[in-house]
Amino acid sequence: MIKSILKGMVIGIANIIPGVSGGTMMVSMGIYDKLIHCITHLFSEFKKSVLFLFPIAVGMVVAIAASSFGLSYLFENFPIQTNLLFIGLILGGLPAVWGKVKTQKISLGHMIAGFLFFAMVVILAAVGEKEGNAADLSFGFVNVIKLFGVGVIASATMVIPGVSGSMVLMLMGFYNPVLNAVKDFFSALFAFDMDGILEGCGILVPFGLGVVAGVFGIAKLVEFIFEKFPLYAYWAIIGLIVSSPIAILLMGTFPAMSVLNVVTGILALGVGFVIAMKLGE
Predict the structure, then answer these.
(1) How many whole angstroms separate alpha carbon 192 and alpha carbon 214?
(2) What is the 3-class SS of 189-239, one letter each residue?
(3) Of 20, 83, 257, 261, which residue is the least packed, with the fewest Cβ within 10 Å?
(4) Has this prediction a pTM greater than 0.70?
(5) What is the pLDDT of residues 218-237, one digit of tens each?
(6) Cβ neighbours, 10 Å, residue 246
(7) Nearest Cα to Cα of residue 113 among 172, 164, 162, 159
(8) Of the given ranges (127-141, 153-167, 246-260), which has the lowest mean pLDDT?
(9) Phi-psi region of 271 (alpha: psi -120 to 50; beta: other; left: phi over 0)
(10) How far apart are CA 118 and CA 9, in angstroms?
């Protein structure tokens, strides 16, 4: 039980960091296949699946709640170093995915799959920056539907190895707003602030329901794609990984550069790269 909670915490931290793939962490810890199986066979193997999934879910919630405070602080006070750390984490995961395809013959279809996903991310980052930064999370029917849809999309990408669900949230402009909503909700919860709790529920409940729907909806599809078309899937993932650092640079807001910021930023880039490589081994 404790070990499963700890694994869930690792997945939760990975999912909340832009560029880091929760799916990759599942693969590296040897639980990806079993987790997908338990999701797709939840009702036919209910007791077995719940016993496996519940402690992982608990660990994820704990990690996401705790991480929301630290990441907000880093974004506000160290934007250059934080963004370069994320870029390092993204690039450091590339060798593990490349190892899946490097011994296989490259076809035109593989290259097209990689290019299409590369172009999709870069275009979304280029055209969606202003709208994303101003994402409106005020309570209302349209926003409830929107949050549900965003949750579906983000969670669907969370379970795909090599793809960062939080990166997708960032591209859609909902990463920082949702992260702040999580932080504010738990702050209100600890302070027994009912107005703050209800306000947080208005954002997090529809988003959370979308996350659940997305995970269940995509799990079977992911299982099928990786079984039938693994090389196309991995080339698509490579396209996503290579394009993500470009997207971060396009979307990021950076203060004036200084020698200290450049040096510490490069160090953060190197640290992120090494950590991601080690986790992907």
Answers:
(1) 31
(2) HHCCCHHHHHHHHHHHHHHHHHHHHHHHHHHHHHHHHHHHCHHHHHHHHHH
(3) 257
(4) no
(5) 888 877 887 888 899 889 87
(6) 15
(7) 162
(8) 127-141
(9) alpha
(10) 29
